[in-house]
Amino acid sequence: MRTFIKLVPSITLLLPAIALAQDAGLGHPDKGYESSVWAQLAPVATGFTAVDAAESAKSSSPRGALAAAEVEVALAKSRQTLSRYVPNLTVTGSASRKNLTEFNFGSGASVGALNEGPLTVGMCPGGAGNNCVLDSQGMPVGAVAGQAFETPRNTYSLDATLSVPFSDYVLALAPARKGARANEQSARLRQEAELQTADVNARIAYFDWVRAQAQLAIAEASQASSRARVEDARIGLEAGTVTSADALGLESLAASTKLGVVQAQSFLRLAEQNLRITAQYDGPLAIGEDLSAKAPSIESLGTLDELVAHGQKHRAESRALQASESAMKFAVDGANANLYPRIDGFVNVTHANPNQAFFPPSGEWNTSWMVGLNLSWRLDGYLSTKALVRELDANASVLVAQSSSLDRAIEMEVRSAWEEWQRASATAGIAKVELAASEAMHEQRILLFQGGEATSTAVVEAEIQRANATYRKVSASIDKRVALARMRRAAALDVKGASK
């Protein structure tokens, strides 16, 4: 688009040199040529500015919205990661019915003693005889007939188990928490980078639109000059001071200037649509930037080396990569925890009817509990962790390389914006002198042509030089502002909390 803008003058500015002979009694039609161009570029109080374009673009940027969604994804993943280190509480309840089961210990009786120790034969208590089997304390040993019993058919159970990953708390929790925060930060910085890109793109689109306005203003001024000089040529033809060939040539050029205006109008419509799409703005468009005001010097922002260093340190893209590098290192630390045996503590409470911890089973509710530690280690887990750590190390190396590449790209971007401003500044100074000289030359050649001492070719050349100088002066003012916008983005000068 910028290339097309700069090509239009080559087409349009060849057209305005139509005026030739002019009656001395008529006022010079080109007095205030430059001022008429600037008048069409004058800002209005309620006009649209580059800041307005940037704010509108940021608030509606689709890539910014995508980056915001990625922030939410990062937050969700962070919560998922940290949830793995919360003590795991499992509660289960069950109810079942089974077939009737009977336990029968067979015929005969079971013999039992009250006190442990060797059995003896002796006097029965109460003088009932002297052939009783006695325990170690002289108490008779008894026999009880075996009784069959049934287990309850209905079973109800409520079971709660709490598992605490002690080893993870020591080895993996801190890296996981820090890595999650680093990933969140990286996502937020990527969102910030997208918004900054939308900002500078909207500003450039705005200044392209202003440049198109300037192109149209110059084309219209040239067309007005052409029409006036065609009329002068007609008068000169009647007076015999202009040849018919010159007059016909000027008529042809007058038609070409009209085409130049049409082309400039077409390009302005294209630039306006580009601005509206880039900034997502549907309101009225009127220039709100004072292009005639002196643009700030780029040197006031700092030296070139300072700006390069500031951009490399504070650009959102650089900080996002640094956060990703940190997250990857924390991920390596967390993965290394899986190389060691795992220790988990557990507590289990069972409230059941019947409770299997009680014998014989009965249709009653009973509660039992258990506390302990689990120590585990798996060979396949060890091998997979080693492979994972190697992968994470490789990814970290990729991020380091990307960071180095980005630093070089930022340096080139800063240097490019710097040179763009220097070039525009030099062009502005030269164009100012050129325009003053071309206006003086234009006026002199018109007077010489009116006196029959110059050809129409000289007048055409003067018209071209004056229009080109006007365009270069206006365009240089715009180029300075574009360069400043690029520099503020490249060197991250608008980042909150950053300092040069």
Can you tell me about this structure?
By secondary structure, the protein is an alpha+beta fold. The protein has 3 domains: 2-89 and 168-341 and 378-490, Outer membrane efflux proteins (OEP); 117-143, no CATH class; 343-376, no CATH class. It is 60% helix and 13% strand. The protein has 11 helices and 10 strands. The chain has helices at residues 2-12, 33-40, 50-60, 62-83, 166-171, 173-239, 244-279, 304-314, 316-336, 379-450, 456-490, and strands spanning 88-97, 101-103, 109-112, 120-122, 132-134, 142-145, 149-151, 154-164, 342-353, 366-376. It has a 4-stranded antiparallel sheet. It has a two-stranded antiparallel sheet with strand order 2-7. Strands 3-6 form a two-stranded antiparallel ribbon. The longest helix is centred in the C-terminal third of the chain and has 72 residues, at 379-450. The protein is rod-shaped, with a radius of gyration of 46 Å. The protein starts with a helix and ends in a 10-residue tail after the last helix. Residues 1-29 have low confidence and may be disordered.
| Distance linking N and C termini | 34 Å
Q: Largest beta sheet: what is the strand line-up? A: 1-8-9-10
Q: Determine the mean pLDDT.
A: 84
Question: Which structural category fits the helices and strands?
Answer: alpha+beta
Radius of gyration, rounded? 46 Å
The percentage helix is: 55-70%
Keywords:
3 domains; 500 residues; 10 strands; single chain; alpha+beta; 11 helices; rod-shaped; Outer membrane efflux proteins (OEP); disordered N terminus; two-stranded antiparallel ribbon
